[in-house]
Amino acid sequence: LAANLPRKCSMNIAYMGGRQAGIIGLLTIQALGHDLAHVVAYDANMAKIARSFTWEDVYRSLSEVNNDWEGVDLLLSVHGREIVSQSLLDRLPLGGVNVHPCLYAFKGKDPVDRFLQSEYGQASVGVHRMTNQVDEGEVLCEFFTTVSKSRGTEGIYNRLYPLYPLAIQRTLLILEEKSKTTNTKSEISSMP
Prior knowledge:
By secondary structure, this protein is of the alpha/beta class. It contains 6 helices and 9 strands.
């Protein structure tokens, strides 16, 4: 994964996630060498994995983080369960992004279940900028795969899991490039 696309800098990321996709996202950030400022885990398995990497402060909600956002470049959410305030997003040099299955057609909750009831034949993992409105920000990237609906919700997710690292990596590269061209005030540190 990391060898596919070169990385030029390391971000300080606050992460919120849950379920299997959330764990995949957390492991992707770790594999890419980014720093984790905070981890908000929405279930016990996610918290256990986070603590196994010696992140002592694993939170259950963003409100537990308080005002400790100094030096954080980006908030990244994978199966997050909270709407993030615009004031918090505005404090972060790169704002926030959310990774969402079937973003192209099914914003909001239960997208895979709604996909199964639809006429669509391709499922996806998309990433969009966070706003204070659910799944309404600019779409940064989206990866698609053809799926068999007979596999059910679990089968669809099993086909989507490999797309999460690709979408996260592509998004981080996009944000790195945009931060260079728009002169953001990010404190992203250059890698040697």
